[in-house]
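Protocol check, entry for the methods section draft. Step 1: assemble the input record (protein sequence plus ligand SMILES). Step 2: submit for complex structure prediction. Step 3: store the structure tokens unaltered in the notebook. Ligand used here: pyridoxal-5'-phosphate. Step 1 record:
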Amino acid sequence: MKGFFGDFGGMFVPETLVPALEQLEREFNILKDDPVFTADLQRYSTTYIGRPSPVYYASRLSEKYGTEIYLKREDLNHTGSHKINNTIGQALLTRYMGKKRIIAETGAGQHGVATATVAALFGLDCTVYMGAVDAARQKPNVDRMKLLGAKLELVHDGSKTLKDATNAAMRDWVKNVEDTHYIIGSVIGPHPFPEMVAHFQSVIGREARASFEEMGFLPDAVVACVGGGSNAIGIFKGFLDAPCELYGIEAGGLSDNEGDHAMAIGKGRAGILHGCITYLVQTADGQVADVHSVAAGLDYPGIGPEHSYLHSTGRVIYDKVRDEDAVSAFRELARREGIVPAVESSHAIAYVLKNPDKFNGRRVLINLSGRGDKDSERDI
Ligand SMILES: *Cc1c(COP(=O)(O)O)cnc(C)c1O
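Step 3, stored output:
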């Protein structure tokens, strides 16, 4: 069925949004294969983001752990993570659709910054919705969004965090859909967002596959952290048809207790979240549960519907890493390789370092989804 990955996905939204989603689907399907659009995207990828990002062989880490460890360096992208691959693609799409304004929701502020950046780049009017509690916790990102010229709308409803910001952004979109595009930050939300965001992030896997083919071999396993799941889908797309094991690592947080983790697949059940059917962490009576992760980017109760599908078919193995192990891996990569990873990406690194039984003597590609400058000042 259109917009579904097996039993997951779909478009469960207020009727007023259906025409906008259908328009988006139409335009995206035309533009993604349009030579002018793709050349434009390619040019910005190269000259603005700094692509292609290299695959780096981490020799000192590999030596210590007895595993050949390769890192896909998305941390080297402009603004410091993979998020810009998606925001630049969607902002360009906005421009081609003739819309003048973009909106976004943000939790930790990373997606807000990536959106404010491309708004400045393309001269688009930009409003970012952020929970008041989150804004107080993420002052540097708030300042950066303002510096980039975005309007920041603080949301004082509910828990004043990401899900309230998402609801506020949805309300704005319903009202202003004629001239406004809503840039969702991961492979989540109603169709066509999961498919579209995956398309813009698939550059990660395409480049990584080419790097390995140049070296003359493939990795035995590919490992990525999973919040909504965009960096993971992006790298997996390059290896789904290859004989490589794929691992998606969820935030195990402090414990398996409700409220202590963000394991949508590990501890969740299927339900509807933000316009699609997917796995999400729920309370006993079916409400969206509180979640926790030391990594703000993984602190999300759901996961993209394509991941739910890849879990159901068994093609990708989903597992967890606890906060403390992610923080150890964060320090280990800094000291052993001189690379400070995002604490999100550190979950993927920790999984490889902590599971020698799975990875010893093998070649493993880890997606280093972002850099850790934002994390290095925190007391972690
Ligand atoms: C936002 C973020 C993530 C989580 O988002 P996904 O959509 O799961 O990729 C992971 N790593 C970094 C560095 C991030 O900024």
